[in-house]
Amino acid sequence: MTRADTVLLNGRIFLGLAEGFAEALAVADGKVLAASSAAEIAALQGPGTKIVDLAGRVAIPGLNDAHMHLLPLGLAMGEVNLRPEEGVNGIDEILGRIAAAAKGRKPGEWVVGRGYDHNELAERRHPTAEELDRAAPDNPVYIKRTCGHVGVVNSRALAAAGIGHNTPSPDGGLIERRGNRLTGLLAESAMRLIVEAMPRPSAAELKAAIETAGHYMLSQGFTSVMDAAVGMTAGMAELEAYEEVARAGTLPVRTWVCIYGNADGIGDAAHAAGYRFGRETGLLRYGAMKVFGDGSAGGLTAAMSEPYLVGDPANRGIFIYPDADMHRYLRHYHELGYQLAIHAIGDAAIEQVLSGIEKADSPEHPIRGRRHRIEHCGFLTDGQLARMAAAGIDPVPQPAFIYEFGDLYVTNLGQARADASYPMRKWLDAGLHAAASSDAPVCATDPFKNLFTMVTRQTKRHTEIGGAERLSMAEAVHAYTLLGAYTQFAEDRLGRLVPGQLADIAVLSQDIFAVPVAAVENDLRCDLTLLAGEVVFDRHGQLAAAAQ
């Protein structure tokens, strides 16, 4: 009889949406050996079996953030934190943090910040280049709105990027002017002008970012992620950094690589270098290709069929590419064998992307079974949803957008469009694999805020947005585990705690299926994370203490 290496006892084990709960679980050789009654699992114990006493807590499959940016998250941890929950509620606070950061840098060195939300600022507007000039007169400054689709720079950064008063906005982007003067605000493809002017991170910095962010994800119960645009910051060097940490065994989490394939991306270079669907290096797996279709609803750049309700009355957002170019990219990467993972938030952008994927279908290269994805897919129509279900195209949404930005959606788009956004219930009922994710560092990685919103449809201000789209807690955890595994072609080994699957496990501080939903928002934590049966995070040193 195979003896268990580790046994989890004295709490509930959530095995999966279809499987329900077990009293205890046994792990052997990195996989689930059995999940059953406490008595049956006790029979599998041996003298060397480690015991994890749940003490009334709950264990769930390791969480899977199906769309986030692991390497950029690690880099962002070294940037100026401008997120609202960190106390940034006015422009003076932004300027003060930028000025403090500039004091620690030499003249000419860049100051980069991320996470401000103009909707959360007292002034209800973006900072300006002139204001950033006053905060850091000797340094180029680049701050990004929380969505990552809009940013503001100062005069030194504009000069470094070669942006002057007569520089036209690039296709798919915006260089904002007021009264023929640059404001410093840039959107979408225009932001690439700044990125290209900035010094690129070193190989050591890239590897450190991956490892730092990966360990942070483990501390929240995540064992799998998708890095949703590898190559966007430092080109092919990002793939090389991932390969190095994977070969060295220091990649903390299972990572599904989505290559940045825009016009300025590395799609073809990566394919030529052998980074193709099916490649594996340690915990690293390759398969997806990213192309941006539009921007963000909070930043007024997601491409909509109807205008926004604020700002320019004619504004319907931004298409990054015209139809012909987008459809050419989709066919090209589809025929190269990649899973398509295409950013589209507004219904007009979703239509462009969906019709392009449909047109790429052919007897030689059918789209069925390829698990193509529309990332975010926030404001789709019922007709588009039905076409996605018919073609096997899945949405990969961020319920956290409702939590963090839902009130802004009501302002920008009206209650009806906000209510219909990110329809988790409709997707699940239609059989689509709507894998939950955070899009970090756009949103916080905190899984409990995401789970809270999936079951309540409430924003951080507790405004209800589209209550008909609520899920049960079991369905929400399902969206954060097995559905993520499915979108990464890994459902045969991840996402449930059943015999034969990898023992990727998160032990939560409380039984998330039994506590009041209000406690989920702020009171829950991950106490213990196991990857293939090995403890990789132990908040309280529980197992180390038990071994003494």
Number of separate helices: 20
Distance between the termini: 28 Å
Low-confidence segments: none
Structural class: alpha/beta
Strand content: 15-25%
**Total number of beta strands:** 24
Which CATH class of the domain at 79-197 is shown? Answer: Alpha Beta
The main sheet comes to: 8 strands, mixed
Note the overall shape. globular
- Determine the CATH topology of the domain at 79-197: Diaminopimelate Epimerase, Chain A, domain 1
Question: Radius of gyration from the CA trace?
Answer: 23 Å
Helix content: 25-40%
Mean pLDDT: 96
> Which CATH architecture of the domain at 79-197 would you pick?
Roll
Domain Amidohydrolase: 50-537
Keywords: Hydrolase
Organism: Bosea minatitlanensis
Enzyme class: hydrolase
Written account of the structure:
Helix 10 (323-335) packs across helix 11 and helix 11 (347-360) runs parallel beside helix 12. The chain contains 20 helices and 24 strands. Among the domains are: 6-56 and 498-547, Urease, subunit C, domain 1 (Roll), CATH 2.30.40.10; 79-197, Diaminopimelate Epimerase, Chain A, domain 1, CATH 3.10.310.70. By secondary structure, the chain is of the alpha/beta class. The strands form 4 sheets. Strands 8, 15, 16, 17, 18, 19, 20 and 21 form an 8-stranded mixed β-sheet that branches. The chain has a 6-stranded mixed β-sheet with strand order 3-2-7-22-23-24, covered by helices on one side. The chain has a 6-stranded mixed β-sheet with strand order 9-10-11-12-14-13, sandwiched between helices. The two termini are 28 Å apart. A hairpin with a 2-residue loop joins strand 13 (173-178) and strand 14 (181-188). The longest helix is centred in the middle third of the chain and has 16 residues, at 203-218. Helices cover 32% and strands 22% of the residues. The mean pLDDT is 96. 55% of the residues are buried.
